[in-house]
Each structure stands twice: as C-alpha cells, then as structure tokens.
C-alpha cells in the first residue's frame, strides 16, 4: 500500500491560509503542512499545530517572500529589508547568508515547541544547485527528511537523505477539479511512498494583496474537503500519512 503524504505549503503565511490548512486537515485529506517561520502568521500557525498534534508539520524554508528571521544576512535583502525575488536572489545571495538564514528559520520553528517532520521550501528553491548543498547539510544536522528534488536515483538527495519515492507538484493552477486530483493520486499507486503538494486557504487581505496565487486556493480547499474525494481516496487503498509515519522515525 502506498504511503501518501498530502502536504499543504505556506502554513504561517497569514491567518486565512492557516485556517484553510487546518480545515483541509480536520475535514479533508491533508495530512501535513510546512510552516514559513518568517511570515506574520507563523505564531498563529504554530499555535494551531500544537492544538492539532496529529498534523505533521515541517519547515517551509523561505528566501524569496517576506523578510528574513536573521538580522544579519545583507546579501539576501533589498533596500527595504525584504527578500530579493527568486531570480535576483540566486545571483546575489552569498552561501554563508543562506545557511545563516535557513538555520535561523529552523531554530525559530523549534522555539515554538514543535518537532519538525521534514524540510521543503518556497518555490522549491531547496533543489537549486547553489542552495541544495546547504539544505542537505542542515537536513543531516537536524536529522530531517526533505521534499524530493530529483527523479535521478543517482542524485545525492536520493542517496544521502530521506525522501519519498515520488513527488507530485501538479495540483496547482486555475482550472483544478476533483477528477484531476484523483488522477494525480493514481500516479502514486506504483510507489511505496509519495507526496502531493497543495495550497488550501481561506482568502484574507494579506493573501489577496501579497500572493499571485490566492483565489485558486479556495478551490483547492473545496476539492480537498469534498466528501466524494475523501471516499474515492479511501477506496484507492492509499495510506494517508505524514513524513514521520512514512519514515518511521523520531525527529528533533
């Protein structure tokens, strides 16, 4: 039976995002979330996580949204103190600053009293060739799995780190349907472990004005909590789990 993690990204972005994720967990098929410790809704998300201890919560490492946690990472920020956008960031970010900021984000997560289940990142930057060696180092330091970054079995992430066999990033966009979600889940059935990424949310002002992917999240939430979807997933024989259960490990 496939162990399937359904992970909601951007936990901590805002209260609307946080409450949507909790709804998708309590009344839907979401099993896991990853928390942005640098965003305004981080403490609210952490409080909700503590109230819902069976929700797997990992760390959504951030370099290109909001502001840094560490106060001394000058190569990562613009004149306003905000992170550079992703394309500019890759060009100007110094590796020492990336490691400092990622470490600060992990330590801030731990300060909330939570035990992280895994690491992933905003806009998948943890898989970039410049950034991945830092993430790999931190994953080993904190004994954490990471979101899959390569289908190449010889990639170091698949040799040195714990990661699922299959990652599904395609539940995303302007024309999502329940049928599409179920088709994506079918892709996982030939693997022992898989992760499907999603972004459910309720709309609030910070999300509406801050993200280009806002209204679509309400549609995601509706699909992920649809009773017919829940029944169909149960009939497929997948086991909905968190990273903790998928790897049968005790984390930090």
UniProtKB/TrEMBL annotation:
<dbReference type="GO" id="GO:0046872">
    <property type="term" value="F:metal ion binding"/>
</dbReference>
<keyword id="KW-0479">Metal-binding</keyword>
<dbReference type="InterPro" id="IPR022948">
    <property type="entry name" value="COD_ChbG_bac"/>
</dbReference>
<dbReference type="GO" id="GO:0019213">
    <property type="term" value="F:deacetylase activity"/>
</dbReference>
<dbReference type="GO" id="GO:0016811">
    <property type="term" value="F:hydrolase activity, acting on carbon-nitrogen (but not peptide) bonds, in linear amides"/>
</dbReference>
<keyword id="KW-0378">Hydrolase</keyword>
<dbReference type="InterPro" id="IPR011330">
    <property type="entry name" value="Glyco_hydro/deAcase_b/a-brl"/>
</dbReference>
<dbReference type="Pfam" id="PF04794">
    <property type="entry name" value="YdjC"/>
</dbReference>
<feature type="binding site">
    <location>
        <position position="122"/>
    </location>
    <ligand>
        <name>Mg(2+)</name>
    </ligand>
</feature>
<comment type="similarity">
    <text>Belongs to the YdjC deacetylase family.</text>
</comment>
<protein>
    <recommendedName>
        <fullName>Carbohydrate deacetylase</fullName>
        <ecNumber>3.5.1.-</ecNumber>
    </recommendedName>
</protein>
<dbReference type="GO" id="GO:0000272">
    <property type="term" value="P:polysaccharide catabolic process"/>
</dbReference>
<keyword id="KW-0119">Carbohydrate metabolism</keyword>
<dbReference type="InterPro" id="IPR006879">
    <property type="entry name" value="YdjC-like"/>
</dbReference>
<feature type="binding site">
    <location>
        <position position="60"/>
    </location>
    <ligand>
        <name>Mg(2+)</name>
    </ligand>
</feature>
<keyword id="KW-0460">Magnesium</keyword>
<comment type="subunit">
    <text>Homodimer.</text>
</comment>
<comment type="function">
    <text>Probably catalyzes the deacetylation of acetylated carbohydrates an important step in the degradation of oligosaccharides.</text>
</comment>
